[in-house]
Amino acid sequence: MTAIPNRKLIVAIDGPAGAGKSTIAARLARKLGYVNLETGAMYRALALKAIEWDVSFDDEAALAKLASDSRIQLEPTHSGNRVLLDGRDVTARVRETDVTEGASRVSVYPKVREWMVARQQEMGAGGGVVMEGRDIGTKVFPNADVKVFLDADPVVREQRRLQQQNLRGSEAEASVAELRERDRRDRTRAQSPLAAAPDALVLDSTSLSEDEVLQRVEDLVNRKLLQQN
Ligand code: DC
What we know:
- By secondary structure, the protein is an alpha/beta fold.
- Helix content is 50%, strand content 17%.
- It contains 9 helices and 8 strands.
- Strand 4 (80-85) and strand 5 (88-89) form a beta hairpin.
- Helix 4 packs parallel to helix 8.
- It starts with 9 loop residues before the first strand and ends with a helix.
- 37% of the residues are buried.
- The model has no long low-confidence stretch (mean pLDDT 92).
- The structure holds 2'-deoxycytidine-5'-monophosphate.
- 2'-deoxycytidine-5'-monophosphate (DC) binds at residues 17, 39-41, 43-44, 103-104, 107, 133-135, 182, 186.
- The site of 2'-deoxycytidine-5'-monophosphate (DC) has 14 residues, from helix 2, helix 4 and helix 8.
């Protein structure tokens, strides 16, 4: 008798900026042999295109049209996702401050989100993905096999970001202000505000090490895989 291979799961990891989603999602995907998709990078790519094409962050219809005229691709690599905008590698550019702020602004619009969610559903439909973002467990894959909401104390999240970016003085202050504003916008927008799905495992990483967080998520994935057999 031939063994039936395990169905490849859809793992959703949501949470605010600085909670450690990217690191956990990348490590988990590597361990499982899955693909890690960072959906925030898609909102970032659209924000970059809006900057380049001089489309206002206040114009929902123009932003939605811009999205549907664009090709935004995520290519998983060993060191995170490569981001392609209309075939051009914009991986580093989309991490800059103006694009980061823009991503949070374009992501409030229902028409933009509709387009993004449809693309993300296509990308993850076959399973074998660890998809991270803000609305993966609530909106993109409400039936995801595993849902994790990763949170941490805002002060700790800010400190982690400052360390990652090696910022001090006025640059550090600006970065903290930007994170707070982005948090506020992500949590209060009308469409798919950042919130844990009712059936998500909520993990507060404030006083957990990265390894401890990863272990808990892995335990959950393993339980799910066992249930299939
Ligand atoms: O995860 P990130 O910091 O790269 O995300 C950039 C912005 O995109 C963030 O401020 C909110 C938005 N976003 C979203 O609304 N939904 C997602 N699934 C991912 C990101």
